[in-house]
Specification:
Layout lengths: L3 E6 L3 H6 L5 H18 L5 E10 L7 H24 L2 E6 L7 H13 L6 E9 L1 H17 L10 H9 L7 E4 L18 E4 L9 H12 L30
Parallel strand pairs: 1-2, 1-5, 2-4, 3-4, 5-6
The protein binds farnesyl diphosphate.
Farnesyl diphosphate (FPP) binds next to helix 1, helix 2, strand 2 and helix 3.
Length: 251
């Protein structure tokens, strides 16, 4: 049975550092600790796919020194964690553009992808130089080219085919977590999150640990997912159902 797909917008590294009088990059360093903890915890909590927003295409607007630190941290994470990721059955892949990733970080990332390719306990997807709008445009271009060359009829383009082209068939996230109190999607998995449950917490990402992930999952399990249908609605009108009665999950 396939488990849950959880996606995370890891936010609040800068605020975490500032509140301690530290430079911003120390917040990102703290954020790597949280990545480590969450990746370790995920399989035991029923998560089989974890997508982390590590660097958005809009993050290039940040000072070069901060961008450099972020890619240095990515490289270090890949180099230092590869052994443990393999031991724990974690397969790593990256989504987003690759042509602008600094060469040494890209080399470690690709090596990690290659060496972990056979693992299946957890699929860790790192969104790097990622823009959902750009990804949707890329998938659309790919389909348009197939239509131009005659291998696809324009009428065959359906939501399912576009989804498949966009994601390679990875199941959509069940739950999106965003830390640090912001309540927006910031160009992350716009199509894929169509029916995801959204969970916002004020916890800053460098403070986010297994217990916070468990809290998010407990909240998720109380949600009733209807995907636009009627789901497992109670027969009685909502006002007759005691307010604190837990809802049944429809999936
Ligand atoms: C947002 O916090 C966070 C980021 C832009 C980067 C996230 C990166 C990491 C957690 C470390 C590297 C990741 C891996 C997978 C090794 P912010 O800087 O926007 O925080 P702020 O809103 O408080 O300023």
């Amino acid at each position: 049975m396939s488990g849950l797909h959880v996606a995370v917008i890891m936010d609040g590294n800068g605020r975490w550092a500032r509140s301690r009088g530290l430079p911003r990059w120390r917040g990102h360093l703290g954020g790597v600790e949280s990545v480590r903890d969450v990746v370790r915890a995920a399989p035991d909590l029923g998560i089989t796919t974890l997508t982390l927003y590590a660097f958005s295409s809009d993050n290039w607007k940040r000072p070069a020194a901060e961008v450099g630190r972020l890619f240095w941290l990515l490289r270090e994470y890949c180099t230092r964690e590869r052994g443990e990721l393999l031991e724990n059955g974690v397969r790593v892949t990256a989504i987003g553009r690759r042509d602008r990733i600094p060469r040494s970080a890209l080399a470690e990332l690709v090596r990690t992808e290659t060496e972990t390719a056979g693992e299946s306990r957890l699929h860790l997807r790192l969104a790097i130089d990622y823009s959902s709008k750009a990804e949707i445009a890329r998938a659309s271009r790919e389909l348009a080219q197939r239509a131009e060359t005659g291998s696809l009829a324009a009428g065959e383009i359906s939501p399912d085919l576009l989804y498949q082209t966009l994601t390679g068939g990875v199941a959509a996230p069940d739950l999106l977590i965003r830390t640090a109190g912001e309540q927006r999607l910031s160009d992350f998995l716009l199509w894929e999150l169509a029916y995801a449950e959204l969970y916002f917490t004020t916890v800053l990402w460098p403070d986010f640990r297994r217990a916070d992930l468990m809290r998010a999952l407990a909240d998720f399990r109380r949600r009733e997912r209807r995907f636009g249908g009627l789901g497992a609605r109670p027969a009685s009108p909502p006002e007759l159902v005691p307010a604190n009665e837990p809802k049944r999950r429809a999936v």
